[in-house]
Design brief:
Radius of gyration: 35 Å
Family: Belongs to the FAM32 family.
Strand content: under 5%
Distance between the termini: 83 Å
Shape: flat
Order of helices and strands: HHH
Protein name: Protein FAM32A
Helix content: 40-55%
Number of helices: 3
Organism: Ridgeia piscesae (Tubeworm)
Largest sheet: none
GO cellular component, one term: nucleolus
Number of strands: 0
Amino acid sequence: MADYESVQRGSLNLKCDSSIKKKKKRKHKNAKKILEQISKCDDGEQLEPPMRIDKRTKAEIAFAETKAKRDAEEILKKASKTHKERIMEFNEHLDNLSEHFDIPKVSWTK
């Protein structure tokens, strides 16, 4: 009975501490700002779109451009063939492959 006397009574203490809680994001503040901007726009003032500043480096910009070019070339390459042509090309490729389960030639005369 001495073993049962050291049992903790009450709720379990899990790894996460329940006293620390995440703050919830408040979206209604942004909604109020948008509504104010819309109401200003209705008054006759035109809202100018905010200017986007590109914070990428020269290398990142060059990489994005070359990637876009490569993607466009790949799309054109894939779109140039019809489905039937792709299937025929694939079948020709399979015909040229050696079958892995074929028995290799064995010399009967050693």
